[in-house]
């Protein structure tokens, strides 16, 4: 593990020396809070590129999905478009442009805490209203919610099977270096029953923060109407192992080398989130790979139409399409999960009979 020679790294050292080891969740939450509030991390000049920055087709097809669902739900008015962690506002801008073609012109709400990113987003979508969390979103209208690469940045707790039972995986110091240790408090009750007898050294991850957001989102959609698309990299079955990673300047780096100066993420557990959504009144539409979902929505047809109108961009459009849907790029690792109000129609691109989420 890295030495973390950054201002936040020194803060962590002082805290550990004073109060003892800290959790992985605490390290991740504080690191990302510092990281996102101090910069615009997106694009070629940042640390990573998200799907909306790859091609306008991504946001356009999300807008098409939302508009189609809204029309089939009876075109209720008023309605709110909500994006969780809108990046640079690119996805929203492209989606809203497409929605307007179907006479869907919702009020716009961005859930974003970073002042730096809020400034960029306001330039892209001037009508957006900003919120620190979901609690202040309107409660009197259906919500059309999108979260792209939002859940993966939420903190995860790591639990490890030690000799004496399950313990929380913590971060301590060995000299100046951060090292993993097992906590003292028993954590067996927090472990799913089918994992409790796992072999020593097994690690599992949970994200109470992601579950809390899904709980609030599902309850609102069930009560107000609407739907949500959650797009992220992750898995649809429960798995063991640490998925914590860091990206800086478009390269994977040691998560503990630059606290507050690299983007920390972990895989999203879509099976658990689907179960949480159902438990709080929403309908799970299904979870699909990004590649399959975008193909169903017509990305290949859209790419060809754009190429016909801009022949000199054909190669770039083909490369962007492939990056979004190819199995060895974003197409398989990234998943799309849909949830909706029980009285709204089923969303295109999902097969709810293709397998229920794990209980």
From TrEMBL:
InterPro entries per the UniProt record, alphabetical: NDUFAF7 (IPR003788), NDUFAF7_sf (IPR038375), SAM-dependent_MTases_sf (IPR029063)
Keyword presence, Nucleus: no
Annotated GO biological process: methylation
Top-rank lineage group of the source organism: Bacteria
Keyword Methyltransferase annotated: yes
Keywords assigned by UniProt, alphabetized: Methyltransferase, Transferase
Molecular function via GO: protein-arginine omega-N symmetric methyltransferase activity
PANTHER family, sorted: PROTEIN ARGININE METHYLTRANSFERASE NDUFAF7, MITOCHONDRIAL
Name under which the protein is recorded: Class I SAM-dependent methyltransferase
